[in-house]
Amino acid sequence: MHTTTSHTPESKKRSGEHILIKMTYIAKNVDLDSGIELTRALEYWRRYFEENDIVSALVISEGYFVQSFQGTRPAINTALEKILDEHSAIFPNIVKIEEIESRQWNGFLVKHLTSSAEDEEYALKSFSAGSDYNPYLMTSTQIESFLTAVFEDADSKKS
Question: Which residues lie in coiled coils (predicted)?
Fold first, then answer.
């Protein structure tokens, strides 16, 4: 039996496309050694997320990734499968998945934290469980607060 799927509002509801999901994960960068490789990977994912109406906030620091991305349930599930399939060497650890009312981010945001005093303030004083920055030691609440602080502060400085 052959059935065709129409893209009516009702068929989208059956796929969960009306439900927004926020997924946050942490990972250790053991795969992308050079700046060129990382830049290419980030551009690939920026385009992929844009094409699939997913917004994202990514912090890269000391070899770690902390990322939150938001979109429809089917889009987030497909993206997660793709990340696990294509980047298993980074050992992504899901921190939190939740339904949300609206997207928090706008576009594909990336912040590279450095050893500057300002960036260390984000990473060490407010959110890290130890003296060294390690998101694996942070609770999901600390990670969410960390991402919000990094990107809200960046937005407020632009104004």
Answer: none
- The answer, yes or no, to whether residue 151 has pLDDT greater than 90, is no
Q: What's at 109, amino acid-wise?
A: L
C-alpha span between 123 and 134 (Å, rounded)? 8
DSSP string of 83-147, one letter each residue: HHHH-GGG--EEEEEEEESS-SS-SEEEEE--SSHHHHIIIIIIT-SSSS--GGGS-HHHHHHHH
Burial of 9 (0-12, 13-18, 19+ CB in 10 A): exposed
The domain made up of 15-158 has a fold known as: Alpha-Beta Plaits (3.30.70)
Give the pLDDT band of residue 109 (cuts 50, 70, 90). very high
What's residue 33's pLDDT? 64
Strand partners of residue 14: none
Q: For 34, which DSSP code? A: S
Cβ atoms of 64 and 133 closer than 8 Å: yes
Check: CB of residue 62 under 8 Å from CB of residue 30.
no
Q: Where are the domains of the chain?
A: 15-158
In which element (H, E) is residue 59 found?
strand 55-61
